[in-house]
């Protein structure tokens, strides 16, 4: 297939996946919260009444303000948001601009992956990795959570993809998963012993383990360094332009995810540049 045509198709498909990612980003933390509440009630010996089904499929998407269901025509990625003027068709409540932003990012990362790796197994796998990182980034920004429902399948997905050496030899992928987890786990406990408080969450360990499984252990230093640079840039930007209190902790997962995406495309080039 012509690379330009494949890239355009990937961009359109990515817009649609981005629309679904908006559902994942909004609902998955709520699903986790419901599960935790049910478990706590069970441990207290309370009888939990059956709750209405709530997952990534049901209930149907609706306006949170007026409850008006979102029709198929109102759910066309980006186009519908523009046509509606960024407002609910029923009550005219503003619809966050983040929804089309996630859709556009879903299309852009898919197009970049197919352009870089082609319409191949490697290209499709890269799309899956990047979409997962996009969802994790938004969820962690919102809730400071990195759900196991994404990080653990992502880790296993990297190992499975590299059974055939898609991005790294399987040996390097296995070591990458182990080293990625243990490196941040060690830093976590060292920080806790010194400062008496937690410096990051367990989700960060699993995310770096997943990136190690996808890209191999050799790129882990590059990912950690890039995440620090990205984190410093975003953190300083938020403090300077948004007036964010520097004492308020920032989610580290998004920086790992962004660094992982950069390493996917440019990691080998960076390694050859700085470690000839």
Outline the structure in words.
- The protein has 276 residues and is mainly α.
- Helix 1 crosses helix 4 (121-143) and helix 6 runs antiparallel to helix 7 (202-215).
- The model has no long low-confidence stretch (mean pLDDT 89).
- The chain is globular.
- The protein is built from 9 helices and no strands.
Q: What descriptors fit this protein?
A:
mainly alpha; 276 residues; single chain; 0% strand
Topology:
Layout: H1 3-43, H2 79-83, H3 98-117, H4 121-143, H5 148-161, H6 170-195, H7 202-215, H8 220-242, H9 253-274
Helix pairs in contact: 1-3, 1-4, 3-4, 4-5, 4-9, 5-7, 6-7, 7-9, 8-9
The count of strands amounts to 0
Strand content: under 5%
**Helix vs. strand class:** mainly alpha
What is the helix content? 55-70%
Unreliably modeled segments:
none
Alpha plus pi helix count: 9
Distance linking N and C termini: 35 Å
Give the helices and strands as they follow along the chain: HHHHHHHHH
Broad shape: globular
Radius of gyration (CA) equals: 20 Å
Mean pLDDT: 89
What about the largest sheet? none
In brief:
With 276 residues, the chain is mostly helical.
């Amino acid at each position: 297939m012509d690379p330009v045509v494949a890239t355009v198709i990937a961009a359109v498909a990515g817009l649609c996946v981005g629309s679904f990612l908006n559902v994942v980003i909004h609902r998955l933390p709520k699903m986790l919260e419901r599960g935790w509440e049910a478990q706590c009630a069970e441990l207290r010996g309370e009888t939990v009444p059956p709750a209405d089904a709530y997952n990534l499929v049901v209930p149907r998407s609706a306006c949170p303000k007026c409850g008006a269901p979102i029709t198929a025509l109102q759910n066309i990625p980006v186009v519908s948001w523009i046509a509606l003027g960024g407002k609910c068709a029923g009550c005219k409540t503003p619809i966050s601009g983040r929804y089309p932003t996630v859709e556009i990012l879903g299309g852009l990362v898919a197009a970049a992956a197919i352009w870089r790796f082609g319409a191949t197994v490697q290209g499709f796998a890269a799309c899956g990795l990047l979409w997962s990182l996009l969802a994790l980034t938004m969820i962690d920004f919102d809730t400071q959570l990195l759900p196991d429902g994404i990080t653990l399948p992502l880790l296993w997905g990297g190992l499975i993809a590299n059974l055939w050496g898609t991005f790294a030899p399987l040996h390097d992928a296995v070591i990458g998963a182990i080293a990625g987890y243990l490196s941040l786990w060690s830093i976590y406990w060292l920080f806790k012993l010194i400062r008496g408080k937690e410096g990051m969450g367990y989700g960060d360990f699993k995310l770096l383990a997943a990136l190690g499984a996808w890209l191999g252990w050799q790129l882990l230093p590059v990912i950690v360094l890039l995440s620090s640079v990205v984190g410093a840039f975003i953190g300083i930007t938020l403090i300077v332009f948004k007036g964010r209190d520097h004492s308020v902790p920032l989610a580290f997962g998004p920086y790992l995810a962004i660094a992982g995406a950069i390493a996917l495309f440019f990691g080998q080039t960076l390694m050859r540049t700085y470690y000839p």
